[in-house]
Amino acid sequence: MNKIFSVLLISVLFVSCSQYQKALKSEDIAVKTEVANKMYDAGKYTKAIRLYEQIAPAYKGKPSAERMFFFYANSLYKSKQYYLAGYQFENFAATYPKSEKRQEAAFLGAECFYRLSPVYSLDQTDTEKALDKLQRFIDTYPESQYLEQANSYVKELREKQEKKAFEIAKQYNTISDFKGALKALENFISDYPGTPFKEEALYYRFDSAYKLAMNSVESKKQERLAYAKTTHMNLVKFNDGTEYKEKADKMLADIEKELQQFSK
């Protein structure tokens, strides 16, 4: 039984391959279209793309072009060619404003840039483009079935931007540039008040203020110790059960001890 099934499968694949090769060489647009759609339905998107690329010029301006161009764009998307897919989906949405597929095309076009967004440590140009396109989709289709997913993508991308900004600010602390760290972390906290990295940013601001104060010349030490004490208070006020509490409280004890010399 298995041998019969294997023979039938090989026969089907051979016929399919033969049809595809003939369609590639054919001058008949109808033949190419039929086979391209078969490849699309079978999930053979790379083969479908080759045929759609051949017939696309002949379809421009024709009533039947709408379906073909959506399949073409979706084939690119399914085969993870996101730059090309994004362009084709955007072009589709602009060319067919009354299409029932327009909203889906607009969403998938924006999603392509979401897929192109790199890890936070790399250049975030594509992240910014994705955010712009997703926000435009949300504004244009506030009742869309894709709205929840679009908002989820926006949240994820914004957190990625915040992560990059935070890591840049934190880097000053890592390289012991505590003045630079204080400025960068203060700007970060101000720019991203609702960030999920706020507690960590508050801790590293305190750590930077502490280290700057403890290593200061006497003429600046009291003022810097007092500021470091304030940054500790800000951290605990934000979360009195912070994961950094044990370390932070030990550092606060050092600050209090150093401040005693100025109260004599």
Automatic annotation (TrEMBL):
SUPFAM superfamilies the UniProt entry points to: TPR-like (SSF48452)
Keyword Lyase: no
Entry keyword annotation includes Membrane: yes
Gene3D superfamilies the record matches: Tetratricopeptide repeat domain (1.25.40.10)
InterPro entries, sorted: BamD, BamD-like, TPR-like_helical_dom_sf
Residues annotated as domain Outer membrane lipoprotein BamD-like: 36-173
Domain of life (superkingdom): Bacteria
Residues that span the membrane, as ranges: none
One Pfam family matching this protein: YfiO
Keywords: Cell outer membrane, Membrane, Signal
Name the record gives this protein: Outer membrane protein assembly factor BamD
